[in-house]
# Entry
Amino acid sequence: MIRLVAAEWLKLRTLKSFWICAGTALVFTPAAATLSGLLAAGVLQTVIIVLAAVVPGSEYATGTIRTTFLAAPRRIAVMTAKALVAAVVAAVLGAVCLMLAYVVVTLVDVRYGTVVSRSAVDIGHCVLVALFAFAVTLAVKHTASAVSLALSAVLLVRLVLMVVSMMVGADPSTASWNL
# Structure
């Protein structure tokens, strides 16, 4: 299993899209945090969805998934290694981006710092969103479709929770689900 995880990590870090997504998250999450801590989490989750969809989607797009399954015929082990890499990358990228966002926000305006400082919840959310996007990509086997479906589902859940929260009279900006 360790060799499969190492192989998946090697495949991921040699993709241009991985570095583009990581750079985008590292630049735009702190920049968005200066406007709103909730916007920063939204930007981060969008980049995480794209990144998690790229993990299996890039191999399906190029057809190299067949070679992967020839080299390691246990498909469940291969997909578990891919999911593990996607989850760890999402957690690390989320932690780094949220720490940068917190530093930038506390320098600009202290009141947004409390929203961004819920890092443990946000990192857990990043991992769950990454695994969801990964699963959607496995189901549709197409990166663009998976990103569209996963992003739509995540945003729809957020919208529904916000409407329900408003209907019961809670302030949606302070709700614990508002990531």
Q: What stands out?
A: The chain has one domain: 2-174. The mean pLDDT is 82.
